[in-house]
Design a protein that fits this description.
single chain, about 220 residues, alpha/beta, TIM Barrel, eight-stranded parallel beta barrel, 9 helices, 8 strands, about 15% strand, globular, Deoxyribose-phosphate aldolase, EC 4.1.2.4, deoxyribose-phosphate aldolase activity
């Protein structure tokens, strides 16, 4: 099995994050050989510069944290992040449209971003904290239909983050022929919890507690 650090998207999405905070985040990611840094789109160019001599990738969120902006707004934000050097995009599903059962619009919203980046990784945040069990499975099916690369549980800004139950529900609809992976995020604060998700088959972890995990400590971070 891969080492824990290689699963981690080292995350800083607070609205108060400064340029210096992002520089620190990038240095931590390099020092710990995390898979990527995950940050708001305004800092993609800075992170790309800071990580230029490393293997750490840059992941930008789009439509974060509500997912309720227009599809065109998401496309423009994603396009800007990709132009600035983002290797991956984590976009938020339009939860309101999903709750309206306008599933075609949900799929189209996701496809609008994926079409910009056929060769780069798109993760779609379905925000499981707002969904009932049958909605989690339905949302996962829509993400698969739209051609995204990952189903991601949470923004970390809702009432709760990921749960083992969420992951089991998502896994229940993934068929062997589906080329899609799972990212668990929100509330993952220690290495024991992280390993539980990995043992379930999760391919990526979104957390701001990566440093604590690597030293077998528990973080108080919300994300």
């Amino acid at each position: 099995m891969k080492s824990l650090n290689s699963y981690i998207d080292h995350t800083l999405l607070k609205s108060t994050a400064t340029k210096q905070d992002i520089q620190i985040l990038c240095k931590e990611a390099i020092d710990n050989q995390f898979f990527s840094v995950c940050l708001n789109s305004c800092y993609v160019a800075l992170a790309k510069s800071e990580l230029s001599d490393s293997a750490v990738r840059v992941c930008s969120v789009v439509g974060f944290p509500l997912g309720a902006m227009s599809s065109q707004a998401k496309i423009e934000e994603a396009n800007g992040a990709l132009y600035d050097g983002a290797d991956e995009i984590d976009m938020v599903m339009n939860i309101g449209l999903f709750k309206s059962q306008d599933y075609k619009a949900v799929v189209k919203d996701i496809q609008g971003v994926k079409n910009l980046m056929p060769d780069r990784v798109l993760k779609v945040i379905i925000e499981t904290c707002y969904l009932k069990d049958f909605e989690i499975t339905k949302a996962s099916e829509l993400v698969i239909e739209a051609g995204a690369d990952f189903i991601k549980t949470s923004t970390g800004f809702g009432p709760r983050g990921a749960s083992i139950h969420d992951i089991k529900l998502i896994k229940s609809v993934i068929r062997p022929e589906d080329r899609i992976k799972i990212k668990a995020s929100g509330g993952i604060r220690d290495s024991k919890t992280a390993m539980e998700y990995i043992d379930l088959g999760v391919d990526r972890l979104g957390t701001s507690s990566g440093i604590a995990m690597m030293s077998n400590q528990t973080s108080n971070s919300d994300y």
